[in-house]
Amino acid sequence: MDNLTLLMEGFGNALTLQNLLFALIGVLVGTAVGVLPGIGPAMTVALLLPLTYALDVTGSLIMFAGIYYGGMYGGSTTSILLNTPGESSSVVTALEGNKMAKAGRGAQALATAAIGSFVAGTLATGALVLVAPFVVAVAIGLGAPSYFALMVFAFVAVSTVLGSSRIRGLASLFIGLTIGLVGLDATTGQARLTFGQPLLSGGIDVVVIAVALFAIGEALWIAAHLRHGTPATIPVGVPWMGKDDWKRSWKPWLRGTVIGFPFGAIPAGGAEIPTFLSYVAEKKLSKHPEQFGHGAIEGVAGPEAANNASAAGTLVPLLTLGLPTTATAAVMIAAFNQYGIHPGPLLFQTEPVLVWTLIASLFIGNTLLLALNLPLAPLWAKLLRIPRPYLYAGILFFATLGAYAAGMQTFNILILLLLGALGYMARRFGFPVLPIIVGAILGPEMERQLRRALQISAGDPAALLSEPLAVVVYTVIVLFLVVPPVIKSLRQRFGRGAGPTDGPPEDQFDAVGTQTSDGSARVIRAVRPNRRGN
Question: pTM for this structure?
Answer without folding.
Answer: 0.68
